[in-house]
Write a structure and sequence with these properties.
Layout lengths: L1 H19 L6 E2 L2 E2 H14 L4 H8 L19 H8 L1 H12 L2 H4 L10 E2 L6 E2 L3 H20 L2 H17 L6 H11 L5
Antiparallel strand pairs: 1-2, 3-4
Helix pairs in contact: 2-3, 2-7, 3-5, 3-7, 4-5, 7-8, 7-9, 8-9
């Protein structure tokens, strides 16, 4: 029970931090960025993701992303978020936010997956655990965005389904089931 209390306390601290950084006033499909971040976290929790992955899901856009450039925290100031989220959760947030999608997405499905950091230009291969966490957060993020924006769903849904299908072995069963339910061939 103590871990549950600590996890809840961390979520409350992170939620407050994101609110203070303006996430509640930034427009995003489905309302605000903060509402989106909360939905992503709830989806990850429902899929059985561990507490660090859930915390990373809540903060996944803190440094901005390749698809959403507005940062809440300077990506060179990683200690601020690490102090609140924990080192592993912050590292996952950085991995997610730093991902150069045009370079990395075509590499997904092969092994090893070499990531390109869009902030530094450096490349590295994340651990399998980090890659799995990255993909779970990616799926939760994209499914939420597409659920709240029909135009984006029509434009990108089929391609995202193909991308996630290539990575199916790295996704949890609930994440893959959600992909199939929302993006599968019968729904596109």
């Amino acid at each position: 029970m103590e871990d549950l209390g600590e996890d809840l306390s961390r979520r409350v601290r992170l939620d407050r931090f994101l609110t203070e950084r303006g996430a509640e006033s930034i427009a995003h499909p489905g309302g605000t960025l903060l509402a989106h971040l909360r939905r992503v976290t709830d989806k990850l929790a429902a899929w059985g993701a561990d507490a660090d992955v859930q915390a990373a899901g809540l903060c996944h856009a803190a440094y901005g992303t390749d698809g959403f450039r507005q940062a809440l925290v300077d990506p060179m100031d990683r200690t601020t978020l690490a102090a609140l989220a924990g080192k592993r959760a912050e590292a996952l947030v950085y991995l997610y936010g730093s991902c150069d999608r045009a370079t990395v997405y075509p590499r997904l499905g092969s092994r090893p997956v070499v990531f390109r950091d869009r902030f530094t230009g450096l490349e590295h291969a994340p651990t399998e655990a980090d890659l799995r966490a990255f993909l779970e957060i990616t799926v939760a993020n994209e499914l939420d965005v597409l659920a709240h924006n029909a135009e984006l769903a029509a434009e990108h849904g089929a391609a995202l389904h193909r991308l996630f299908a290539r990575c199916r072995s790295l996704l949890s069963a609930p994440a893959w089931q959600a992909c199939e339910a929302q993006l599968g061939p019968a729904t596109s």
